[in-house]
Amino acid sequence: MGLRRWRRERSRALVAVPFLLILVVTVVDILAPPEVHLGPFLVAAPAVTASFGGPWLTGLVGFVAIVAQAVVAVARTSLTDLNHTLQISALILISAIVTLFALHRERHEQQMTRLRSVARATQGVLLRPLPRQVGPLRIASVYLAAEAEAEIGGDLYAVARTAGATRLVIGDVRGKGLEAISDAALVLGAFRAAAHRQAALPALVAHLEGAVSSDPNGPGVQEEEESFVTAAVLDVPDTEHVLHLVSCGHPPPLLLRDGRAAPMEVTRPALPLGLTDIARPEFTVESFPFEADDVVLLYTDGVTEARDGSGTFYPLAERMAAWSGDGPEALLRYLCGDLLAYAGGFLGDDAAMVAVQRLPMAQPSP
After folding, report:
1. What is the DSSP letter of 262?
2. 244: which strand partners?
3. pLDDT category, 17, cuts 50, 70, 90?
C-alpha cells in the first residue's frame, strides 16, 4: 500500500510540472525586454507531458500552452504579429505530434497490461497452490512476477506425496515467454506423473531429464540459443529427520536453524535438465539433517539476483537469518516485503520461493 501511495503522489507531482512551466515561461516572457522571446520554451510543456501522461492530458497541456502563447502575444505586441503567429503555429503542430505520440504510448501500455494479466493468469494455472500441510511438513509458496516486461519466466515448483515421504521440486527454465512456460509445464507434468511411482530419487530425476530431452521442442535443441532447466528435487521421509536432495545446477536451498541460515551445498551437482548432449547425466543423492522446527527455503535465482540502487545483490541468507518469526507463511511474507523494498519495488526477473518446515510430530494431513 505504501508503494502505491508513493506512486500516486509522484504522478500528481509530475502533472503539476508542465503547468508550472507554462506559468513561469508566460510571466517571464511578458516581463522580459522586447528583444527577448521565451515563447519557444512553451513547447517543452506538452513534450514533457507526453512522456508520462495520456493523450487527453497531453492535449490539455498543449492547449493551455497555446493559450498562454496567445496571451503573451497580446500583452507584448498583437496576436497577428508575425513572430508570435509563427510561434503559435509551431506550438500547435508540436502539440498535435506529441499528443499522437502519447496516444500510441498509452495503447502500447494497455496492450502490455493485458499481456501481463494473461501471463500471470497462465502462471497461476501452471503453478497450482501448494497445500499448507503435507505429512509432517508445513509448506508455503510465493511467486513474484517481474515488472520489467510482460513475458513471464519459467519458474516452477510442485509437491507430491508418496507412501512414506514428501517430494518437492523447484526449477527455473532459462528464457521467458511461451517457450519457457511450455518447458516448465513439461517438467511439472513429468514430476506430478512420476513422483509417487519412482521409488528412488535418481530415477525420478532421470525421468524428468528424459521428459525434457525427448521433447522435440524442449530445451537443448534450439538453434539460436541453448536452453535448459535448473532444478532441485527433494525427498523428505516422514519418520527420519533427514532430507535427500538432487541438485541439477539449481541454487542451493537454505536451512534455517537456531537463527542461522546455511546453504545446503551438494558436493556432486548434476548438470541442468536438457543438457544430455553435453555429458551423460549422473544424479547423486546427498542427505542433510532436517530436524523438527527446521525451515528449508527453496528459491529461484530471481531472488538472489535482485539488486539495490548500488547494484548489490540481495543477501538472502543474511536476511533470512535475521528473521525471528514463526512458520513458513510468516517467513515468506517477511522475505517478499524485504526483497521488494531492497529492489525499490521492481524485480528484474521472476522470483519463486517455497518454505518447508518440519513439524515436531508427524501428523499426516488428510
Report:
1. E
2. 235, 287
3. confident
Three cell numbers at 283? 544424479
Q: Where would I find the H helices in the chain?
A: 2-31, 44-49, 55-76, 82-126, 177-194, 201-214, 301-304, 316-321, 328-342
Average pLDDT over all residues of the chain: 84
* Pairwise pLDDT comparison (237 vs 81), residue with the higher score: 237
Does residue 62 contact residue 98 with C-beta atoms inside 8 Å? yes
CA 70 vs CA 22, 23, 58, 67: distances in Å? 12, 13, 18, 5
pTM comes to 0.68
Nearest to 79 by CA among 42, 24, 88, 39: 88
pLDDT at position 242, please?
A: 95
Helix (H/G/I), strand (E/B), else coil: 283: coil
Q: What is the pLDDT of residues 266-307, one digit of tens each?
A: 999 999 998 876 667 789 999 999 999 999 999 999 999 999
Give the residue among 113, 10, 108, 9 at the shortest CA–CA distance from 54: 108
Nearest to 264 by CA among 278, 250, 277, 281: 250
Q: What is the DSSP letter of 363?
A: -
Find where cell 513429468 sits: 190
List, for residues 211-225, the tens digit of each pLDDT value.
888 765 555 444 445
Q: For residue 247, is pLDDT > 90? A: yes
Strand 260-263 relative to strand 254-257: parallel, antiparallel, unpaired?
antiparallel
Nearest to 165 by CA among 211, 212, 233, 230: 233
Angle at 119 between CA 177 and CA 153, to 5 degrees: 40
Count of CB atoms situated within 10 Å of the CB of 184: 23
